[in-house]
Structure formats: C-alpha cells, structure tokens
C-alpha cells in the first residue's frame, strides 16, 4: 500500500515537474490573446480601423489601447465577439452598421486634382491631372481614404450591390431541436 | 404576389413519411409477439407491460417539461412508447412494478434526455434501462417463470397478478431457468452441453416461444414476422438483422463443431434468449446504429460475435443487451470509417485518376 | 445496349400524366415581352438597342458579353419600350437589366443569317459560330452557353454525344413532347452537333416512362447510322449529366473534371432542336417549350412561349389557377427554384412553371434527426447528408467541404426522403453559397494585397528615382562647381606670374 502510494506520488511529482519546466522553457513568445483576437477579425487587412492591418488592430486590442468598435467590415457580429472575449461592453454609438462598400466619384464634382489617386493604396483610381477620375470597382477595397482627401466631396462610398451571381440561400431556420450546450 | 413565401429552397415534393409514422410502424410490428407473450405469461405480464410503457411516457413528459420543450408535439412521435415497449419486452414477465418504473427512469432520463433527447442519445435507451436493472437487481432480473397462459389452469387471475406485480409476492414454485441460463449453470457444475440440452425445450417450442424468458422475447417466429413486416415497409433493411444472426451463428457453429460438449450449437444460440428481438428490433435502432449499409454490416457482425462471447465466457447467461451497448459505443467510429465512396472520388476522397473509366 | 447501374436515387410521384398528352401549343403574343440580359451562366449580354428602336423578329438586341456568355434576340417584331431593371425569375427576386419589347403584332422576321448548306460536311467552326450567334444555351435548366460546350471537341478526344432526354424531374413533359412531335428536328440537331464535336457516336437516352417519345425517336433515328436511342430506367436523378453518362457508358467522371475528360459531351434534346433551327434556317433561339403544370393550374399544358413572356401570361393561357397555389416553381419540383412572383419572364433555361398546392408539397416543420440513414442510402453522389448538415448547422464549412458538400448536385433526393423533413438540400445550398462567397472574399483580399504591394513598390521606386535624380543633379552641380573652382584656380595660377 505504502509503496503504491509512494510510487504514484513520486511519479506525479516528477511528471508534473517536467510539464512545469517544459511550459516555462519551451513557452512560445506570443500573446495568445492577440492571436485569438486576430482570428476573430475578418482578416481583409482593409485598414478601416485606422491600423495597418488586422494583426496590428488585434495587438492594440490586446493591450487595451483600442475600442472594439473599429472594425467596419466585420460588423456587429465581430464587435460582439470581441467585446465578449475582452469582457467589455461595446459602445455601438461609434459604430454604424454597413456592409462592404466601394468608392464612386461623382463626375460633376470632380475637378481632377489627382489627390485621391495619390492616396489610393491599391491603385484603383484612374485619371490624370485636370481630367475626370473614375474608380475601378473591382479593385477598390472600400478603405474610404480617398473620401477624406477629396477637396470637393466628389467621392461617396456605396454598398456593393448583391447580384444574381453573388446571392445565395440563407441559413435555414433551425429545426426544433433538443440542443444541449 | 405575397401569398408565395420563398424562404426555402426545393425540393417541393416529399415522400409520405414522418418520424411518427416510422415509430408507429415499429410498434405495429411488435404487436404479434407482444400479444402472444402477454397471453403466455398472463396478467402479471400485462400489468408490468402497462406500467413500464406508461412510466416511459411519463418520464419523457417530465424530462421535456424540465427542458422547457413542448411536450405534446414530442410525445406524439411515439418514441418514448417504443422505448418503454422494448424495455418491457426485455424484463422478466412477473417482475415487480418498480422494476418497470426504475427501468423507465434510467432509459428515458439517463440514456435519452441527458444526451439531448430524441436522435441525440449514444446508447439504446431500452437496453441501458435493462442493463442498469440487471446489474443492480440481478436476482429480480433473472427470476424467470414457465409459461402460464391466460385462463389456463394454474395461471394467476387479475387479483393474484396484482399481488405478484404490485405486492412483489413472487410464488416460489413457478420459477424456472431460461434455456441459456440452464445450460450455463449446468456447464459450471461440470455437466457438458450435450447432456444439459436434454432438459431445454425442443427446437419447435423454442421457435414458437413456449418457453421461459423475458416478457417479449420468446417467440422467434412472431418476432421474425414483425421484422419481415418492417423490411417490407422499408423501415429497416436486411443488413443489421442478417449480420447479427449470421455473425452469431457462424462463430457459435464453428466452436460447436470443434467441441460440442463445451459450446452450444449455432441454432440453439439463434432461437434462445433475445437473439431475434435483438437482431430485428434492438440493434436496428436508427439513432444508435451506423447510417451506412456497410457500417451496419460491421455493426451487426460485431453484435453477433459479442453476443456469443458474452454468453459463452462472461458471467451472464445472456449478452444481447451488453453486445448492443458495446457496439453502440463504436457506432461513431464505424460511421467515420464506412462512409460511402463519393461519386468521382476514391475511398480517400481524392478525385479518380483520368484514363480509367472505373474506380 | 448494356446499361450500368447508378447509385441511390429515388422514385418520386411523377405526375407527368397531368400534361403528357397535351400537344405543344403556341402562346398568343403577349402585350409586352421582358428579355433579361442574363438568362445563362456567365457574363450578362450587352445591350445593342435603344429605347424606341424598332426591331424585327430574330434581330440581335444584346450581344454576347464575354467568352462564356450568349446574345439575346428579339422574339418578335416591335418597338423597344424601355430598358430597365425588372425582377428576375430567381428565388432572390433581385432585379436585373431587362429589355422590354412591345410587339407590333406582325411577327416579321429580320434578315436572318443564311442557312448553312450541307452542315454535316461544313467546317465545325462555322457551326459553333452559328450556335454562339444564335444565343443557344442548355435548355435542360442549367442554361450553359451551348457553343462553349461544342468547342470541347477541339480540346478533348470525344467519343460520344449523349443527348439527354431522360427528363427525370416529376411533372415536366416539355422534352417528352418535343421528342414526340419534333423527333426529326432533334435528330438532325444531334447529327449537326456530333459533327461539330467530332464524335462518331450519338446516344439518345430517354427514361422508360416515355414510351411514345422512345418510339418516335427510334423511328426518326433508324434512317441514320451511328445514332442509338436507349431507354434508361426510371430512377431520379437519371437526368443528372454525370449519372446519365455513368448509366450509359459505365464510366465515372472524376471529381472536378468534365464528362468531356472521359470522352462524352451531354446536351439536352431541346438544345439539339434549337441547333437545328439555327443551322438549317438561321433562326436564333427566341422561344421554347415550357410545361405549365401542378395541382393549382386549371388546365396544365405544354406551351411554346416566346422568351420574355411573363409567367402570368402562360398561367392565364392555362385557364389560371384552380386553387390558390402554395408555391410557384421554375423548373421541376425536385431541383426547381421558387419563383418570386407571376410577373417574371420566361427565360431560355425555364423548362417548367409549376403551381403546386400544399397537398403536393407536403410542407412540414423539421424535427430532430433520428439518424435513419435514408439520406445516405439514396444519395446518388455517395455523400453522407446527415453528417454534412450537422456541421453546416454549426457553420463549420471547412469540415462540410471535406465531407464533400461541393460534390453535391443538389438533386434533392435526401430532402425528399427525410422522415424528419429536415431541409438538407437547403443546408447544402447555403453552405455552397457561403463557401463560394468566402472564396470570392479571399480572392478579393489576395488581389488587394497584390495591388497594395505593387503600389508600395511603385511609390518606393518613384521616391528612389526621385532621390537618385536629385542626388545626380546635386553631384552634377557639385562637379560643375568643382570644375569651375578648379578652372578659376588654374586661371589664377596662370595669371600668377612665375
């Protein structure tokens, strides 16, 4: 009996010690919270939050430096997940719900100043000095940076319309189920 | 046009079928064997049967109420009644009332609703009920009686039956061993199978069901009729019943050929105990058996072999319930390894190579 | 001919008798035709006409919008009333650009392209071009541009042109009637297509529940060699392209490949007839036969309707509704799509308009799965619907894709058979849509990253160039200054008396 208890105790202490040591010495130098938050974000690196990409926003979130309401493409769902993860209450007053958007230049207002062309990080705006500019809708990723620099407010963001090609069936209503959580 | 709601994709036609109808057909198929056995074991069996089925329905209603789910809709699918029915069929016919009630609590509460209710349970509820009872109350659960047909001489009347079932006054004189139990006991006393077989009912009685045994399991012929009816109605396929009985028969017959004194014959294994009931009605339970036909064959053979192993080497004379529960535990893994081959892909799921027309 | 078994399948209530004995009738010209620009898989067509233009029957009014696309033609003569957004015959009910044509009642043909003389000896390219110009798309329902499929002969070694006359969908009888009434046209179209594809054999597969069609086609084919008309077992979804190829040839099309990869090209019988019209008479695809049926239709019928006629026009022609329909369906009841209303137009891929009663649809709320395995047994694609749906319910598309949800042909057999009435196919359609959307998003993100990197590179290079130019300028200036200084010094030196 004593031998059994003794040997099990020794084994437990030894194995526990090894595990503890491994956790200390082999630890991965990475904030796991940051990784988790990054996985929750859409990952489109759009920069609409004001950070360079989703990774940087996640890092800021993990340090508590940024509000959870900045991700526009993620919408309400992402905000709520982030808020739940970080244990904060989301302040929706700063957030307006909108889907993916693209920029449109109002022809009459454009003076051809090329400022938006310089601002665009994906070269989605075509045009030249003194000539009317236009946006290549396929290339535009909706960051809205051009809107801010336009001196004549000639650029507006429009939601990308749903087409027959992009429409698909929504999730069916869940059947009456005995779901256990 | 507002009258047309288009919230759901096709198809816009459906086979005439429902869970309720399926369950009801199974109950219908159980009817002949049950009626015969209720006649054979008389009033105490009728009382126990009623109490067990009733308890299961009540237990289902209570569990649904606790879970805050609509009771009426769920009860109308007959699944609780079917569980109760199968549980009752696996009980000793003259067992006291509380056996049925406790069995119902274990079957419905523990085996079914803890897992999330219909469709979610891993183990066959009726067999969980029976097994828990067998392990907890081995004496009560193996108190078999010889047939006492209704209205025959010596059969208990309704009042006596109330005494037996409600009062728990089991008359000593009537107890009898089941054939499987008898052979096993004799073998443990050193009497070879060849000799002890002389005392068990002859093959005809075993087939027709005029023997000691559980409340609903004795008549192989009537259970077979019910099973064939289910196959004809396409509720079950031949895969599980045939593979259970085939697996059991083959292994039993092989060992019997090697040592007839130690091992009972394949035929004996087939017609005794709950083999037919298990093969047609218990192992075929949708929820707890594999979904693919190949998986069902694996599952069935596994059940058959386990039944023989438990009957032959384990402490219990009967092994159907244990065998089914053990194979239930393997069902998810069987499902995973017996997925059908997808069209245009090989077994590993890779696209078929070009140039070869056939896989 | 030896046939091969296909896996699974079901035997739904066919109800073809509602319309199978009704001869094809031509719809009286409606007061307006609505011709959508997208009636096919691929890019939408591009408008060629303006509001107020007068057009003739068969005149091209929108041209092909890309490599995979098809033009649209005026189904009758008249005036272009407007070009505007109209609800599409699509479950979304989304609007799409549609040309509205007001018929003038004369039904005057435009100057059509010349018939191709002796098409069976003509250059295959000529036939393909004619089919492309004529706006012909797969008329079985998929509406894939037919000319693209006729090009396959250039890239694959083809053996068989398989003409699909299975018509395995319940209710539909349009192909049945076309084969019975226009067998010669179908056979001629098939021979032309086989010539364009370069296939030596033509096999025409017809389900055994259409004995008259089988007889008519067999007779029409008997005068030619190399054409076999085969009765195939009545087993839904026999008309699925890959399954029909397997039933006829025993060959299984590998996943992610085309039937052309195993030497077979499949076209619908009505498509063959359209090819006949285009090649022999120069007539583009401007009308099609539509089965109007279902328990809610007063007099079910097979109607040759001009493209662009509203569903309401066809329903009215059939005497309207006998009872209020529970659901309007575009196509058959198994794979058809719900129609958003009666005001949508007939398009090239519309094989049926069904007005179904509640009794026919048997709508019931879904209950919990009891794992009966019926869906696994009947799945013609060898998938495990019960398992896929469980993962999709939890939005786990990755596992659903691994289990093969993208291999699902949406035949609907699993939903049909499910005793718990779980909308399995709806789950799969949802998952496919989500997976495709994720793919699009991923491509967009990749593209954004590439563009953004290119942009950064360009900006950096510009900056570097500028800096280099500046540095060069500076260096030049410095050199010039130094030279000047040196010269001055030299001069000084020179001037300094020795």
Helix content of chain A: 25-40%
Under CATH, the topology of the domain at 32-94 in chain A can be stated as 3-methyladenine DNA Glycosylase II, Chain A, domain 3
Name the CATH class of the largest domain in chain C. Answer: Alpha Beta
Number of separate domains of chain C = 2
Largest interface: B-C, 50 and 75 residues
**In CATH, what is the homologous superfamily of the domain at 32-94 in chain A?**
Electron transport complex subunit B, putative Fe-S cluster
User: Based on the structure given, which CATH architecture of the largest domain in chain C is correct?
Assistant: 3-Layer(aba) Sandwich
Rg calc of chain C: 30 Å
In terms of DSSP E residues, the strand content of chain C is: 15-25%
Lateral arrangement of strands in the main beta sheet of chain A: 1-4
The description of the largest β-sheet of chain C is: 6 strands, mixed
Structural class of chain C: alpha/beta
Question: Briefly, what is this?
Answer:
The complex is a heterotrimer of chains A (181), B (359) and C (498). With 181 residues, chain A is mostly helical.
Description:
The complex is a heterotrimer of chains A (181), B (359) and C (498). Chain A has helices spanning 2-25, 32-40, 54-62, 75-86, 115-119, 145-149; strands at 101-105, 125-126, 134-135, 155-159. With 181 residues, chain A is mainly alpha-helical. Among the domains of chain A are: 32-94, 3-methyladenine DNA Glycosylase II, Chain A, domain 3, CATH 1.10.15.40; 101-159, Alpha-Beta Plaits (2-Layer Sandwich). In chain A, the strands form two sheets. A two-stranded antiparallel ribbon of chain A has the order 1-4. Chain A has a two-stranded antiparallel ribbon with strand order 2-3. Chain A starts with a helix and ends in a 22-residue tail after the last strand. Chain B is globular, with a radius of gyration of 22 Å. With 359 residues, chain B is mainly alpha-helical. Chain B has one domain (19-336). By secondary structure, chain C is α/β, with parallel strands linked by helices. The N and C termini of chain C lie far apart (119 Å). Chains in contact: A-B, A-C, B-C. At the B-C interface, helix 1 of B face helix 7, strand 15, strand 16, helix 14 and helix 15 of C.
